Amino acid sequence: MQITGNHQMARIVRHNDESVREGYIRNGGKEVKFFTSALKAFQCNNRIVMAQRKHLDDFLRGRIIGRLECGRTQLEVSEELGIAQSVISRLWQRFQDDGNVSRCYSTGRPRVTTPNEDRYLTVTAKRNRRSTASDLSRQLSSATGTTVSRQTVYRRLGHIGLYARRPVRCVPLTTTHCRLRLAWSREHALWTPQQWSCVMFSDESRFSLQSDSRWTFIWRAPGTRYHQENTIEPHRYGGAGWLVWGGIILGSRTDLHVQSVTMTGHIYRDVILEQHIRLFRGAMGAEFLFMDDNARPHRA
Hints:
The protein has eleven helices and 13 strands. By secondary structure, it is an alpha+beta fold. Helix 1 (36-51) packs across helix 3 and helix 2 (58-69) crosses helix 4 (85-98).
């Protein structure tokens, strides 16, 4: 090995015999004795270069502490294990301070919230699924005094499987609705096309002149899209709009009825039933069956 300086060239000669603990520096044609302690430091430094930037596992940390407790010096342990003396010194100091030498696995800044605060966010989000991340952050701050960002709320809820998703818009069905519809479906499961040709289905849709941004999100877990707690009723638009009604039957249909006012029981009876449904009933007779969506104006 050669060491290059500004004005000299030095060569360290190391003997192969392990019993020889001395070295020589050849400088300018003269040999100068290299003291044993300096040679030991050089050998230890070589091992350090080979082992630098390698984390010590708990087993190796225990070996270091065990040797130091047995009376070995830090320099001896450093030379034997090939670890920098500064590392051994810090490890020994930490062991004397708190009695722990395990590595602390930590990346980045420490967590702002505690496990109890994470559970608080989870429970609050499940109780009010339409609350935003900002709302949850404010509630956590008022309850515990811990201030977190919206992104932190997203990450904490994402760890337990809650994500912000758009809810499904549908007509909410009660247990009675489901039971009656299932019974009706089983009763008519074996109907023939001729029997279905006498059944008319109807529905109406309201088109609002105001836009729906659909920025309302809920907290839900994957696979729970159609659960009852994750669905909302169709938006009841305010302001001006148009209502379109129509009926279909096997092989035919009614004319579309368009109106700009809200559907009421009187309009449904005087316009829909009298002007549209009565014609089909008169043509088909007693076998005619009219199906609507059970809306409140239909039952008035």
